[in-house]
Design a protein that fits this description.
Strand content: 25-35%
Number of strands: 4
CATH topology: Alpha-Beta Plaits
Structural class: alpha+beta
Number of domains: 1
Radius of gyration: 13 Å
Strand order of the largest sheet: 2-3-1-4
CATH architecture: 2-Layer Sandwich
Order of helices and strands: EHEEHHE
Length: about 90
């Protein structure tokens, strides 16, 4: 099993739009093969800095989701709400 950590910085005044879009994205991920679970977090000192922590059965499952049309479509919406590109880290125990 792997854990994927995604860091995003939301553009000013886009928090509520981001929340709705990010929830739809996570909902789609729940349907992806190999998805185990996911959580979202806000930085206490900077509420526009967000993290998504998800667990995947294998790195191959994550990459299949990462390159899927569903994720690409959602990212085209999310990228409009971000100050910069998301940062992704793949972690293992």
């Amino acid at each position: 099993m792997i854990t994927v950590l995604i860091e995003r910085n939301i553009a000013e005044d886009m928090e509520s739009t981001y929340e709705a879009t990010a929830k739809r994205t996570l909902h789609l991920a729940y349907e992806a093969q190999g998805f185990v679970n996911g959580e979202t977090f806000s930085d206490i000192q900077n509420p526009r800095r967000r993290f998504v922590l998800s667990k995947w059965r294998t790195a191959r499952d994550w990459y299949a989701w990462f390159h899927s049309d569903a994720r690409k479509g959602m990212m085209s919406e999310l990228n409009l709400l971000l100050n910069d590109q998301e940062k992704i880290s793949l972690l293992e125990n």
